[in-house]
Design a protein that fits this description.
The chain has nine helices and eleven strands. It has about 350 residues and is an alpha+beta fold. Helix 1 packs parallel to helix 9 and helix 4 runs antiparallel to helix 6. The two termini are about 30 Å apart. It binds zinc ion. Keywords: Disulfide bond, Hydrolase, Metal-binding, Metalloprotease, Periplasm, Protease, Signal, Zinc.
């Protein structure tokens, strides 16, 4: 057990010792938004792993990186530098990738964004993914032939939905292995939630014959039709990680809340702004909005990438510098609406 103030103090002391929190630095920090600050840090802290705060409002100390390549996984979009997580998440991904390959999901999984080196809010995509306990996994299996760094930048996402219909899974793309993959993800005790598009949850509700209680962990959300999102519980004993409400114990297939997704309301365009009123600029999240310890996390000394890569395997990023993809976020991908059919548009993650 470690209190927030304890880790904040230790990290702040370390930062002061190397003179990072000088007065001009502190002023620059005041003006920049939290996403600018956390988005510009390239390496994790050297401290013990700690999720600090909530999935959608926090940061992380002591992150480790998922190796870019493993026997049963490949990390995608390497230029985004978002393959950092709590060691519990990185260990989970390695285990899940082996189990996925065993299920017949290609030769393993393609891993999208986890978190930035010190977590925190991001400049593009994602409301969550801030404390190293969220990860995106593609609905495309890892091919037998490894993808090059450039292919990992450019490979397009494949939606599991038939976009000509309202919230409907495409039977040409979705099969029993997809269903097994999601339910496998939900089966681990440390997995708290698996976010998928409502159409995917519905398909599972209609077809899953295994343990139905696991379906309660499968949560409907906007987007998430070309990737799914796994969220782990706070690691046992972490005093600084803010827990989320438990997911339903039942399959949650017949609840009012789930039925709501299949009404018009969630897909209606937002109300037009009143032309007589001055538009209100949305307030940016500042460092002071995050847990206090996050200022110290930002300022703490770095750990080298090779040293902080889980299992020590890094494919030297510099050997083949990737051309950054047009900063299109996996979570910000917007579907092209066809005709008048209301289709899932990306909304902020809950
Ligand atoms: Zn996600």
């Amino acid at each position: 057990m470690r209190a927030t103030s304890g880790i904040a103090f230790k990290l702040a002391a370390a930062a002061l010792a190397i003179g990072i929190l000088g007065s001009s630095g502190a002023q620059a920090q005041d003006a920049a938004t939290a996403k600018q600050l956390f988005g510009s840090v390239k390496l994790p802290t050297r401290s013990d792993p700690e999720p600090l705060g909530f999935y959608a409002k926090g940061c992380m100390a002591g992150a480790v990186a998922l190796p870019t390549d493993g026997p049963t996984w490949q990390a995608m979009r390497l230029s985004r530098n978002r393959r950092w997580g709590n060691p519990a998440m990185i260990g989970f991904l390695e285990q899940f990738s082996r189990d996925a390959a065993r299920l017949g999901w290609g030769s393993g999984i393609l891993v999208g964004d986890i978190s930035q080196p010190r977590g925190g809010p991001m400049i593009t995509g994602h409301a969550s993914h801030q404390i190293g306990l969220d990860a995106d996994i593609w609905f495309t299996p890892k091919p037998a032939q490894p993808l090059s760094i450039q292919q990992r930048e450019d490979m397009p996402f494949t939606s599991m939905l038939d976009k000509s219909k309202f919230l409907t899974v495409d039977p040409k793309r979705w099969g029993s292995t997809n269903a097994k993959l999601i339910m496998q993800a939900a089966s681990y005790p440390q997995v708290e939630r698996v976010f998928v598009n409502p159409a995917i949850k519905k398909k599972l509700c209609e077809t899953w014959t295994g343990d139905r209680s696991l379906l309660g962990k499968v949560r409907p959300i906007y987007g998430h039709d070309e990737h799914f999102h796994v969220r782990l519980s706070c690691p046992p004993g972490s005093a600084t990680c803010q827990k989320q409400a438990e997911s339903p114990a039942s399959d949650d297939c017949n609840s009012k809340a789930f039925a709501w997704w299949f009404t018009k309301e969630p897909w209606a365009p937002p109300p037009k702004p009143d032309p007589n009123k001055k538009p209100v600029k949305p307030r940016q999240v500042m460092l002071s909005d995050l847990p206090k310890a996050c200022a110290a996390v930002l300022a703490a000394p770095s750990r080298a990438e090779a040293d902080a890569t889980y299992g020590g395997n890094t494919m030297a990023y510099s050997q083949e510098p990737p051309v950054p993809a047009a900063a299109k976020s996996i979570d910000a991908a917007v579907t092209e609406p066809a005709a008048d059919i209301p289709l899932p548009q990306q909304r902020p993650n809950r």
